[in-house]
Fold:
Amino acid sequence: ETGVTQTPRHLVMGMTNKKSLKCEQHLGHNAMYWYKQSAKKPLELMFVYNFKEQTENNSVPSRFSPECPNSSHLFLHLHTLQPEDSALYLCASSQNQGTTDTQYFGPGTRLTVL
Amino acid sequence: RKEVEQDPGPFNVPEGATVAFNCTYSNSASQSFFWYRQDCRKEPKLLMSVYSSGNEDGRFTAQLNRASQYISLLIRDSKLSDSATYLCVVNNDRGSTLGRLYFGRGTQLTVWP
Structure:
């Protein structure tokens, strides 16, 4: 399935590096999301974009900076990360149909911060 | 209190067994409910939505009890391919038009031959 794609699939970076994660959805959806999944913890919502506008920032540190140039693309810019930021970062999209909205996830980027 | 709580697991069952997972949610205003499946090192994928009347999809049956704020998933005749982590997911309606999902930690299932 290629409805939601993410690149890179794996990323190793030092604490002083700057990198970006990319997400693209081919489903014609209007909403896009970034989630963080750490070991032994539930998925944590980070950011929500609806029609390119950020509608939610779930108290995410400023070292994570999202960008949504259009409804199909979503970026997560990373800088001066900490080792505890190592996790699986998942992008999702949905049609935006209210409370019955179904989200479709990309394969994720597995990030390791050294 | 966590929004969504699940059985800690892991569950290890033989092929052909019936296994049940439980989940509770804290917000009585929650509107919609789902079970997602996540394979090892893969993304979560929707398994089924959960409706008030209960619903069945092949070997999978989901139940919702709004009064007790409790959701269940029953898997009959387990297959090796059912081995995965099962995530209980709740949409917490806060007046938003968007689906705001809350995920449980997941319950790991291993089906052995």
In short: The mean pLDDT of chain B is 90. The radius of gyration of chain B is 14 Å. Chain B is about 0% helix and 55% strand. Chain B touches chain A at residues 2, 4, 31-32, 34, 41-46, 49, 87, 91, 93, 96-106 (CB under 8 Å).
